[in-house]
């Protein structure tokens, strides 16, 4: 019985150690910070040369993007990111997936199904988002989500 208890204790310690080392996902942190308007988190998560390409085609640098969030000129009610595919390019990650966007902005943004692309770089040992792009997906009869011609 003591051996069984010792094995159980070792298992608990091993599993909890792995949980303590789990690193939060940069894209999830970014998505949450954008939706709740967490400017301090965005200051940390965004690379100095960050570009934000809105679903309406307008582009902003880090300073202007953060100001639109801070001044509530861009309020994102819903931003999801699923079916993500990642390609490594050196120390950078190119992540693309399907998403849903609902936001209030001037000029107005398209709402609905999007192709979301995010580029994450390693900057001084920390992952940072260097680019976000949302592109509206127009569904067709043979392809509802835009993911039909990739494997």
From TrEMBL:
Domain DUF4440: 28-107
UniProt keywords, alphabetically: Signal
Chain ranges passing through the membrane: none
Domain of life of the organism encoding this protein: Bacteria
Endpoints of the signal sequence: 1-22
Matching Pfam families: DUF4440
InterPro entries referenced in this protein's UniProt entry, alphabetically: DUF4440, NTF2-like_dom_sf
Keyword Magnesium on entry: no
The protein, known as: Nuclear transport factor 2 family protein
Gene source species: Desulfovibrio desulfuricans
